């Protein structure tokens, strides 16, 4: 018998001063049996960073034809495709062909850095691709916030991101490795 997904519920208050987005979201996240708390919280962070009334969680972990999160317009066209972790370059290329914009949030310290270095030349060809590395200290601290029922606050201001639960707060450090619309890679 297959192990079922674990359900997490999050009440997420977002104050994004950069996009002037201030909303509360009641989210239900299904954590695949092989997914870690760290990856779950990175998906939740990605939601907060791109929050929109039509942004949805996908089956990206188990279905290569779906994103971890995506935003579709009213016709079903994919406006934004978001993956977390270190997805295969071929899957990223496919996502870039299907979506207006693709964002990858990689994490994992040295492993993520090596993944990017090995694929940088291939990523350069994708004009609608942004890759952001989340520093390991930040994602490990986010994992400690994971609970089956969460009340979280996310503040985004002046390039800084804070996620907290009232008892603990994590400043999320991000490094842009590739920006959409640019061929230039950051060192």
Task: Give a topology summary.
Layout: E1 6-16, E2 21-31, H1 37-49, E3 55-57, E4 69-72, E5 78-84, H2 89-98, E6 99-107, H3 110-124, E7 129-134, H4 136-143, E8 149-157, E9 160-164, E10 169-172, E11 174-178
Helix pairs in contact: 1-4
Name the features:
alpha/beta, 4 helices, five-stranded mixed sheet, six-stranded mixed sheet, Restriction endonuclease-like alpha-beta roll fold, 187 residues
Kindly describe this structure.
- With 187 residues, this protein is of the alpha/beta class.
- Helix content is 25%, strand content 40%.
- The protein has helices spanning 37-49, 89-98, 110-124, 136-143; strands spanning 6-16, 21-31, 55-57, 69-72, 78-84, 99-107, 129-134, 149-157, 160-164, 169-172, 174-178.
- Mean pLDDT is 92; it is low at 183-187.
The best one-word shape is globular
Radius of gyration: 16 Å
Number of domains: 1
**CATH topology group:** Restriction endonuclease-like alpha-beta roll fold
Averaged pLDDT? 92
Secondary-structure element order, N to C: EEHEEEHEHEHEEEE
Which homologous superfamily in CATH is the superfamily?
Restriction endonuclease-like alpha-beta roll domain
Concise summary:
With 187 residues, the chain is of the alpha/beta class.
């Amino acid at each position: 018998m297959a192990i079922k997904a674990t359900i997490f519920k999050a009440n997420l208050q977002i104050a994004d001063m950069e996009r002037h987005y201030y909303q509360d979201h009641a989210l239900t996240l299904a954590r695949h049996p092989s997914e870690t708390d760290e990856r779950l919280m990175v998906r939740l962070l990605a939601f907060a960073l791109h929050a929109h009334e039509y942004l949805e969680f996908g089956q990206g972990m188990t279905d290569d034809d779906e994103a971890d999160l995506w935003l579709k317009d009213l016709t079903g066209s994919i406006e934004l495709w978001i993956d977390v972790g270190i997805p295969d370059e071929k899957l990223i290329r496919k996502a870039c062909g299907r979506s207006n914009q693709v964002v990858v949030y990689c994490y994992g310290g040295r492993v993520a850095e090596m993944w990017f270095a090995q694929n940088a030349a291939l990523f350069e060809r994708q004009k609608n691709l942004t890759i952001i590395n989340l520093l390991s200290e930040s994602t490990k601290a986010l994992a400690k916030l994971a609970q089956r029922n969460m009340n979280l606050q996310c503040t985004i201001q002046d390039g800084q991101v804070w996620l907290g639960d009232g008892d603990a707060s994590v400043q999320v450090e991000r490094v842009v490795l590739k920006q959409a619309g640019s061929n230039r890679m950051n060192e």
